[in-house]
């Protein structure tokens, strides 16, 4: 039989030819690579990620889509909807990600640096979410507890202590227990003082680590074993020095069930920490910065929902004990009593839509805002006063109204935080509203005071966005390494301070750092 005619030779385009093998370094014993083997083959130029056009036959290069109900086997997807190979998201990358997907990212315009930095930011976001769940508890469990407590009253609760565990300016708190799924949970029963209830507002607030969480509420007669110390509304005396209320039938009162059990108020903490401030000023003032930071974050959350703190004073700010590491972030052992508590805002009110018109006199507006603690415009001034109170510097309302803006009480320089807190207090209490910093700006200043960049960074190099960006990228990498080393070494679980630090480095940019350092180090 005659042989079939030979097939025509395919003409290879130059772009599709294999590269010439050049001199290479091979380890002894390795096989000689052949032309056309995987070791030497390279993809055509037009097939590299992000370069050129795709091949003419798009169907052969597009990823196979799952068949829809209207498609049968053998049918191709419509040519009008081609798909490119999906690049993995930086949030989805893990150590076990396939090398093929990693290769796509490394060939992208961002390159190696962009991939590494993106992975760091995504990792910080995941760590922050995990820490928040550890601190506040899983949201699903809170919802289950709320459903179980619906309609329950005192009879369904176990009173763990007949005396209040904490008394704030507007409520008494009792420690109670409730059995859920064969385990007893502890939370707080909040009994508001007369004319101090903010149930309607509090029940509509979103979840935040600095906002008191409401699990339920009811109205019932107070159990006979519970003691309401002192005269309702009287706040000047402590729990130990107060006489119980007159015996008689227990009143019917509104009760709010709160997830967190407060151990004391900020006023109690400041009053009992004079000695600690003298013996460990650095630790104490850092703790003060962290408490103020939590307050500012909570106030930001309230403003986003058109709410405000009721009476922003130390007596109405609650402190809740939370699990913490045995060592501080600097790696030093914390003195007794200096573990960081959670700060909670516990009283609220709805901000009116129409604000009071401003007068033409800045001095009059400043005095009215100081004298009326409720309006949201007074939040910055109240936070400024809190700085002095936390640092044990007397600055009562009567005294502050008599000071000029440049003659505020002097804050002694006891630690590396003193000058920054003095600067922040001056900016918050400035008479000119255009010169006064906002709560959001105060939060940024506190974060820089706690975690940098410090002024010494600019001693050898002029401050620039490039310098701040490089500093930020290095600090993020070092922070992740610290978490890994802490877990591998002492197996210390991240605590509240680590979560606050993650929140900072997760969202801050070099532009924000430039603006904050301009104000702080002016």
UniProtKB/TrEMBL annotation:
- Keyword Transferase recorded: yes
Annotated region described as Disordered, given as residue ranges:
1-91
One GO term of the cellular component aspect? focal adhesion
Record field: compositional bias (Basic and acidic residues): 50-60
Keyword annotations: Kinase, Transferase
Source organism superkingdom: Eukaryota
The record, for InterPro entries, names: Kinase-like_dom_sf (IPR011009), MitoQC_Scaffold_Kinases (IPR051511)
Q: Which GO terms describe its molecular function?
A: protein kinase activity
Record-stated family: Belongs to the protein kinase superfamily.
Q: What is the protein's given name?
A: PRAG1 kinase
Taxonomic lineage of the native organism: Eukaryota, Metazoa, Chordata, Craniata, Vertebrata
């Amino acid at each position: 039989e005659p042989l079939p005619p030979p097939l025509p030779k395919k003409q290879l385009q130059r772009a599709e030819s294999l590269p010439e093998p050049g001199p290479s370094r091979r380890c002894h014993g390795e096989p000689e690579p052949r032309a056309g083997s995987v070791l030497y083959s390279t993809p055509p130029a037009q097939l590299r990620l992000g370069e050129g056009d795709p091949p003419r036959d798009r169907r052969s290069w597009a990823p196979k889509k799952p068949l829809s109900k209207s498609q049968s086997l053998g049918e191709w997807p419509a040519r009008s909807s081609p798909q490119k190979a999906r690049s993995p998201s930086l949030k989805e990358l893990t150590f076990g990600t396939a090398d093929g997907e990693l290769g796509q990212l490394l060939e992208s315009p961002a390159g190696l640096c962009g991939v590494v930095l993106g992975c760091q930011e995504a990792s910080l976001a995941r760590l922050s979410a995990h820490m928040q769940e550890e601190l506040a508890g899983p949201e699903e469990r809170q919802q289950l507890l709320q459903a179980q407590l619906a309609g329950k009253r005192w009879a369904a609760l176990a009173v763990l202590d007949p005396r209040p565990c904490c008394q704030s300016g507007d409520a008494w708190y009792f420690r109670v227990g409730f059995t859920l799924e064969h385990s007893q949970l502890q939370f707080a029963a909040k009994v508001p003082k007369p004319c101090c209830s903010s149930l309607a507002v509090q029940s509509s607030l979103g979840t935040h680590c600095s906002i008191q969480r409401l699990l339920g509420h009811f109205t019932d007669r107070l159990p006979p074993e519970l003691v309401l110390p002192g005269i309702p509304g009287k706040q000047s005396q402590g729990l130990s020095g107060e006489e119980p209320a007159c015996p008689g039938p227990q009143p019917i009162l509104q009760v709010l069930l709160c997830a967190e059990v407060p151990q004391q108020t900020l006023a109690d903490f400041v009053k009992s920490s004079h000695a600690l401030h003298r013996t460990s000023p650095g630790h104490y003032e850092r703790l003060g910065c962290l408490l103020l930071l939590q307050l500012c974050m909570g106030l930001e959350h309230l403003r986003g929902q058109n709410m405000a703190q009721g009476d922003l004073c130390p007596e109405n700010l609650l402190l809740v004990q939370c699990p913490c590491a045995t060592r501080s972030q600097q790696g030093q052992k914390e003195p007794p009593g200096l573990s960081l508590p959670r700060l909670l805002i516990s009283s609220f009110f709805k901000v009116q839509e129409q604000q009071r018109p401003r007068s033409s006199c800045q001095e009059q507006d400043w005095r009215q805002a100081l004298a009326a603690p409720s309006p949201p415009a007074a939040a910055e001034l109240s936070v400024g006063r809190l700085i002095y109170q936390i640092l044990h510097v007397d600055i009562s309302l009567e005294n502050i109204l008599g000071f000029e803006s440049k003659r505020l009480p002097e804050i002694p320089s006891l630690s590396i935080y003193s000058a920054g807190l003095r600067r922040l207090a001056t900016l918050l209490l400035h008479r000119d509203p255009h010169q006064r910093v906002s709560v959001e700006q105060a939060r940024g200043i506190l974060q820089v005071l706690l975690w940098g960049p410090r002024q010494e960074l600019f001693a050898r190099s002029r401050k620039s966005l490039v310098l701040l960006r490089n500093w930020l990228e290095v600090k993020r990498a070092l922070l992740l390494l610290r978490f890994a080393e802490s877990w591998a070494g002492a197996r210390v679980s991240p605590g509240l301070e680590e979560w606050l630090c993650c929140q900072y480095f997760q969202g801050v940019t070099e532009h924000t750092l430039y603006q904050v350092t301009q104000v702080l180090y002016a």
